[in-house]
């Protein structure tokens, strides 16, 4: 059966998107270190150009098919049957657009805050953008793994060089957690390569049958990499440290794009390639997701650091994402994918907002704030929008994602759906309490002299406000891209039967 479509734009758009920022990073090497203004404007120009090219994906994408689009395939290492193979479907296309937008905002928010090794900072950021896009486009498992590992280097540098006082500890912890998972992923890829007849072609791997025991082993090998990246409970402990110590741009990229790659891995590999094992492990994955939702929310209530609170909220919100994915129904899976986009927008916006005020006060302690709304009304209004979106207020993007996930969760397990719903209540509690302490109450003398956000900062935050209401009011603009691909994926997963399906039913009965 045909699995790809011809490239509808007439040129290798995915290669351009991957290598344009990488080429831009290489060209910055040629710019004199003292010309900081030129480095900033050149980096911004490259990121805007990459975003404009990515809009061609949005306008030329065929929503009616699950087939891979904008495809490219060239032999790379023929002896190992490794190909340079790229393509997008309705699950991956939106993440490329998110990656290109977030990079622009990260450059804008870093305009004045990065003062040390500015040249190297923008090189790292642009190289990271190319690697992120490559992960979502790769259709060869070895190519995917190379992009997956390539992300580690610039992210490690962003945390370790431009981070806070404990940046080395946070960077090493991030690197080790991710590396251990990646090694197991590589082992799984090699096993799959030999079982599938010596191929790394992802689309071909999806069509091969594998013994259930092999599927189960591979599922847990993949889990080690993808769960750490999400991060799922209990392998989440690197995330708060990384977020807390990273510079604002690092926190934004980490929250908005990098942690989505774990959930994307489950969608792209674990479910379609290992459907029987995925079905058998669904109760475990749902259970871990519900624990993350409640645990992450409760931990947020005790946080005193702005960035650490938002970091733990990501554990809770990504728990909703994995719950939706492993509900294995249309509502849950589409809600999970949309919530990945929503979380990238909202949490990215929250970190951008925190970065804007941190540049003024140089403190992240919630106790050091109070009364910010009286001196920064425009900033307070925008942060309120982000807060409401985070708690899932109707007409914001957070509502439709959580609604679909909880709907799908109830269909999979009534207990899971009910417990996930309590996570929404906890989320409203910690976010509204945070907003009250920072923006209302008595004005703290430390913030009395602050000036409101300027035009550059408004331009950085405004796209997020627009997207929050756009998705919240008319979500089908984005849901329409994934309908065909999600339906096809669920058909593939539902092929799993026999021992795996029976095991899943037995464990699900215990949950119910």
Concise description?
With about 500 residues, the protein is mainly α. It contains 22 helices and two strands. A hairpin with a 4-residue loop joins β1 and β2.
List keywords for this structure.
globular; mainly alpha; 512 residues; two-stranded antiparallel ribbon; 22 helices
Description of the molecule:
The chain is mainly alpha-helical. The protein has a domain at 158-511. It contains 22 helices and two strands. It has helices at 13-28, 36-60, 93-109, 118-137, 141-150, 152-162, 167-195, 202-205, 212-229, 238-245, 248-258, 260-273, 275-300, 306-326, 330-361, 372-375, 377-390, 397-412, 414-439, 455-473, 476-493, 499-511, and strands at residues 69-77, 82-88. It has a two-stranded antiparallel sheet. The longest helix is centred in the C-terminal third of the chain and has 32 residues, at 330-361. It is globular, with a radius of gyration of 22 Å. The two termini are 39 Å apart. Residues 497-501 have low confidence and may be disordered.
Topology, please?
Layout: H1 13-28, H2 36-60, E1 69-77, E2 82-88, H3 93-109, H4 118-137, H5 141-150, H6 152-162, H7 167-195, H8 202-205, H9 212-229, H10 238-245, H11 248-258, H12 260-273, H13 275-300, H14 306-326, H15 330-361, H16 372-375, H17 377-390, H18 397-412, H19 414-439, H20 455-473, H21 476-493, H22 499-511
Antiparallel strand pairs: 1-2
């Amino acid at each position: 059966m045909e699995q790809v479509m011809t490239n509808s734009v007439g040129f290798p758009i995915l290669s351009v998107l991957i290598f344009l920022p990488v080429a831009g990073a290489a060209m910055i090497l040629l710019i004199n270190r003292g010309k900081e203004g030129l480095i900033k404007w050149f980096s911004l120009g490259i990121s805007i150009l990459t975003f404009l090219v990515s809009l061609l994906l949005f306008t030329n994408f065929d929503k009616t098919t699950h087939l891979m689009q904008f495809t490219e395939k060239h032999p790379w290492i023929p002896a190992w049957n490794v190909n340079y193979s790229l393509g997008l479907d309705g699950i991956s296309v939106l993440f490329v657009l998110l990656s290109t937008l977030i990079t622009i905002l990260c450059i804008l928010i870093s305009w004045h805050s990065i003062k040390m090794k500015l040249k190297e900072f923008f090189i790292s950021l642009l190289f990271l953008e190319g690697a992120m896009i490559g992960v979502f486009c790769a259709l060869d498992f070895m190519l995917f793994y190379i992009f997956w590992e390539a992300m580690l280097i610039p992210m490690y540098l962003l945390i370790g060089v431009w981070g806070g006082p404990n940046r080395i500890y946070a960077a090493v912890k991030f690197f080790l957690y991710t590396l251990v998972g990646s090694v197991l992923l590589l082992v799984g890829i090699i096993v799959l390569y030999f079982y599938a007849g010596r191929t790394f072609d992802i689309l071909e791997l999806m069509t091969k049958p594998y013994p259930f025991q092999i599927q189960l082993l591979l599922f847990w090998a993949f889990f080690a990499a993808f769960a750490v990246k999400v991060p799922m409970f209990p392998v989440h402990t690197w995330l708060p440290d990384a977020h807390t110590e990273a510079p604002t741009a690092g926190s934004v990229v980490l929250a908005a794009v990098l942690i989505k790659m774990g959930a994307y891995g489950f969608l792209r590999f674990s479910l379609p390639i290992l459907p029987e094992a995925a079905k058998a492990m669904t109760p475990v994955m749902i259970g871990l997701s519900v624990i993350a939702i409640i645990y992450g929310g409760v931990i947020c209530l005790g946080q005193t650091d702005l960035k650490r609170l938002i970091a733990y909220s990501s554990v809770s919100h990504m728990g909703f994402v994995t719950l939706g994915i492993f509900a294995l129904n249309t509502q849950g899976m589409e809600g999970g994918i949309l919530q990945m986009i929503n979380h990238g927008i909202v949490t990215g916006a929250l970190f951008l907002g925190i970065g804007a005020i941190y540049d003024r006060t140089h403190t992240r302690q919630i106790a050091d704030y109070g009364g910010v709304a009286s001196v920064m009304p425009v900033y307070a209004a925008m942060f309120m929008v982000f807060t409401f979106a985070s708690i899932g207020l109707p007409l914001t993007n957070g509502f439709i994602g959580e609604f679909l996930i909880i709907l799908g969760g109830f269909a999979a397990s009534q207990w899971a759906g009910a417990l996930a719903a309590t996570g929404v209540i906890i989320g409203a509690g910690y976010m509204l309490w945070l907003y009250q302490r920072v923006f209302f109450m008595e004005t703290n003398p430390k913030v009395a002299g602050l000036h409101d956000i300027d035009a550059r900062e408004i331009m950085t935050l405004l796209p997020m406000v627009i997207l929050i209401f756009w998705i919240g009011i008319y979500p089908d603009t984005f849901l329409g891209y994934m309908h065909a691909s999600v339906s096809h994926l669920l058909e593939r997963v539902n092929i799993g039967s026999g021992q795996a399906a029976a095991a899943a039913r037995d464990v699900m009965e215990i949950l119910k």
